[in-house]
Amino acid sequence: RLRGAMTEVKREVFGQMPQEEGGGVVEKFILKSNSVKVEILSLGCIIVALEMKGRDGEFSDVVLGFDTLEGYTRKHPFFGAVVGRVANRIAKGRFTVDNKEYQLFLNNGPNSLHGGAKGFDKVLWMPQVLSNGVCFFRLSPDGEEGYPGDLKVWVTYTLSGRELAINYRAQTSKTTPINLTNHAYFNLAGQGSRDIYDHEISIEADFYLPVDDTKIPTG
Prior knowledge:
- Belongs to the aldose epimerase family.
- This protein is an all-beta fold.
- It has one domain: Beta-galactosidase, Chain A, domain 5 (Distorted Sandwich), CATH 2.70.98.10.
- The protein is 2% helix and 38% strand.
- The chain is built from one helix and 16 strands.
- The chain has one helix spanning 69-73, and strands at 2-3, 8-16, 25-32, 36-41, 47-53, 59-61, 82-83, 89-90, 94-97, 100-103, 112-113, 126-130, 133-140, 151-160, 163-172, 181-182.
- A hairpin with a 2-residue loop joins β12 and β13 (133-140).
- The longest helix has 5 residues, at 69-73.
- The mean pLDDT is 94.
């Protein structure tokens, strides 16, 4: 257990991956301040829980996830994970870099989604505990899921007071598309509350991209 200026960091074993998935140990890292508590797995850098203090002073978990590893080793809609190499869809799973065309695995109708059949959300990352967070690292080898280049990736979660920050850094040996994000689902009313269909959100954007029937931007 490490204690920074305002953040407490703990690590514990969350479970064991199935043998067919490599059988590695999955760790959970708990970052806690006076107003926020977040739990993150070494599997897929998944945010398992994010507890925040509401106006009533009570803590509520505002992200969707599972209590056990089994939920994450089965098919699920990328709950809380870091997705990549490319988040979202690549039309027909094809792109051209340096006059060479690459074909990716199609896992979402006619498109490639969130890194393909086994993206960043389904692999174990190497953790390093920091004074106020945790940094995860992995090497995505040249040709993984059809992408070019050895890609080193660092994803760092830090908690400072009420602010949870995620920093992404990548270094590649060949030109490659990369678009990393976290895929948490939020319900700001907290765990155990009803669905979010009566929630309202305002996005101060000047433009947005319309998409076609397969969710590819029309341009």
